[in-house]
Heme chaperone HemW
Amino acid sequence: MKTGLYIHIPFCQQKCLYCDFPSYDNLTHLYQPYVAALCQEISGWGGVLSGTLIDTIYIGGGTPTLLPADALKTILTKVHESFSIDEAAEFSVEANPGTTNQEKLLALKSGGVNRISFGVQTFSDALLKSIGRIHSADQAVRSVKEAQDLGFSNINLDLMYGLPGQSCNDLKVSIQEAMKLDITHISAYGLKVEEGTPFAAMDQIGTLILPEEDEDEEMYTFTTEYLPQHGFKRYEISNFSKAGYECRHNFKYWKYHPYVGVGAAAHSFFQKQRLSNITDVSQYIDCVEKGTLPIEFRENPSTTIAMAEYIFLALRTVHGLSILDFQEYFNRGFYLEYGEIVSELLHKKLIAVKENQVNLTVLGMKYGNVVFRAFLPG
């Protein structure tokens, strides 16, 4: 089976107030040793995956485009040296507005990158400042247009709703501004206040003022109705695209297909094992330099856990869950395992079952976590 490759670049200019991802600012002194260690790990996986075709590659972060152009070239060259890459591979890179320039974009393009995902979040300068972003709306527009001028036609913008001080009209303006840029994909995420973030600390002392529940709901409804009405089909809970521009790499996760992750804090799903790398950047570098695998955690999920994962990952997408595929993968009867749960969710109108297919309803898309929890054991 074709495999996906994820490459983690854990560096950022400034940690956003809502972010709980493994990313770090003020580590420019580690760029060079990190890239060297990363390339060493890529080479190692290249040997393991000899003869396996890579058909999706995703470089995420952090902010990969913080790295200088020559570092990006080094990584991309090592990827091509180490793996057999499908001619039609999707090759994505995350970028923040203001961190790209012509030299970096040309390095990405010559290295095979054909999709860029810009972390815009909102086109309101006031809201950008309130969530700790350091780019402006104008920078976002300029960054997207520069990439398009250099031949990147497959571009995603990340947008957020439910931000402190945000109104539904603010969100509407942001979505309309995004669509003016002739992009192909929008990921729209509701803010979640994650433990350990500055927003969580503010929330605890009562200084984080979020939209009221009804306004948050209005933003969700507007997003999920407006985008499909304007050519962006909803194909997953938080993802919308023009026809043919769905993010193929993410389907590796949702379809329970294998993928390999390299870099600090990267995760892999390989030979039905889940692996996660050392999170600390310095420890990751030390480990790789010593010739030791940088794997911090390795797990063979129990069949019960694996079945639950398979189900709720599949249900995230509009394709839903194929009961026949589930039964072939696990050699278990779907209704024998989950008949009561299915009946309960049908009664609540959160799922629909047609022939051998299970899908979230519109209501189920809204309350997906309720559905997913229902399939988890115990």
